[in-house]
Design a protein that fits this description.
eight-stranded mixed β-sheet, five-stranded mixed beta barrel, 5 helices, 7% helix
Amino acid sequence: MHEHTCTPHVWTPGTETFTATRPPARADGETVNLFCSGHAFLPDGRLLVVGGHLRDGDGVNQACVFDPADDSWTALPEMNSGRWYPTATSLPDGRVLVLSGSFSDGHHDVINHVPQVWDGTQWQSIAHFVALPLYPRVHVAPDGRVLMSGSNAATHLLDTHGTGHWTRLPEPGGVRPNGERQYGPAVAYEPGKVLYTGGGNDAHTDLPSAGTDAIDLDATPPAWHPVASMRFRRRQHNATILADGTVLVTGGTGGPGFNDVSPGRPVHAAELWDPTSGTWTTLAAEDVDRCYHSTALLLPDATVLSAGGGEWMVGGSQNAPADTHRDGQVFRPPYLFRGPRPRIDDAPDELAYGGTSTVEVDGPDIGAVTLVRLSSVTHAFNSGQRFNSLTFTAQGGVLRVTAPPGPESCPPGHHMLFVLSTAGVPSIAHVLRIGPATADTAGAAGGPAAVAGTTGAPAGARSQPLLGGGDALQDWDREAQQEFAGSRVTVGLTAQCPYGLGACWGGAYEALSRLDGVAAVRPVADTADSTATVYLSGPGLPDLERWREQFAHWANGSYAFRGVEVELAGTVVEADGELHLAAPDVSGPVRLEALQRGQELAWDLGTRHPRYAGEHERTAHQRLVEQWRRRDADGLPVRVTGPVRKTDRGWSLSVRRYEDT
């Protein structure tokens, strides 16, 4: 799995044959592994592939294109840094936006917070966003901006023109009712309308959701609202737009945790959502588990390929061979059983926006003409598919079909043209290209009009954030300590995502920034200890119970909130035979205790267990007591660090480290 090469294959649906391509490589000939990359079709039909796999959480900075005309790979200029789990999406002007992905900076696994745009010749870096989620769910909005619908709870729009600009949708409508939901698919089922289904973990049961939220970006103001829930809870599932505009959901697991494939947990039954009625219908079940790393996409014959699954590591162990599926099944939707299929006898290979073209058909009367963009799907999200219903007139076997008015509703590139009978039976698609075959870089400097009611900016961006750690992160900490009067608090978080808090950081960062009293969140998590650092806006200690509730409200069960550790400066005093710290930032003394095994905040990703304290940390309280007994004055000024908790007796701190002040 961690080899640095791969051999992609081309599958031909009609013959069900595979053809191996040569391994993709950088310009210098070094091969790359495209596992966990992002991809999007260019307007000319070639496939752009970005990022890839060095190890879990650490991505490649490569970019390349695949040309289906000769099954060849061509290396492109490298991106600003590595990207593991990035999203690539086609823009209205033919450029491609690349978001997120993680990499190792030598200290931590961190999120690449700098979006980049490929214009056909070079990369352009645009406005940063602190702590993007992995594989962000993004779609082109009606005004040409890019909607980021998840997996974070809050919704943002990115204007990719010029140097870029992020805008947060106003709350409460700009927050999905179902909250932060990882590994749930989002679907642009009509221009400007997005459906987000399932995913994540509920805070108290650890189970994924069956809930579904929708938004209409043409509403004033645009706001998320719940729609009918699926019949089954799902995570790691796929959602595919069908030829008639309905949405088919397949696969996923209904079990707790990240990817529960134990017997009875994977969901085999498909479900179909009808945007007209807003209802779900349970359909046939497939034979094989389709969970993590499965894919599903619409084929030109209007069937759906559901394939793959498996190939993941948890700690140092790979999944059981029986849970890796290198096969696929084809699903025949209900619309194929409603009568005879119409046939496209002749259609253009290219369409111009707003233009009218002739399509010759045969068979039953035609009731609808649709365009579905070619799929680009990975990790429970299809960033390529888009649906458009076209206006047409019919005279005998000749249709006069009007193309979508512009690229905002129908990005340039290759689409499948379907004609459907009045009974709703689709033809076999005719694949055509709409719009120019090259990116329009001349218009990239402008900007669109604002969507009604949008305002704000990404939460938590105290200052220009960092790509990684090292000296720059220490500088950030020093500035934060000078800027904010409150305590520095370390929060222990265990991600459901098995790749650690550093890579799976977006939802945690968003939730931490919403906690009472938090002035700033350190932009990089501590991967080694699975901890995050926040700075309080004022004196005092956090309300731990309130923090737990608030964190769960924003992040659901995507992270386990293990506790907090604080650093306090004050004077050691004795009361009732116990040492206390009189700290000016805290009302009342803080009882100082010895650190017990199991109280440690640090957590080891490799072993999936707490990282137990060393002898020097375990004996810190004892040394402090001995120094107190040897003191020359009434008080002993110190700075102490350790886990804190609040009981009926007040605050207590288990001393892990201390230093004289």
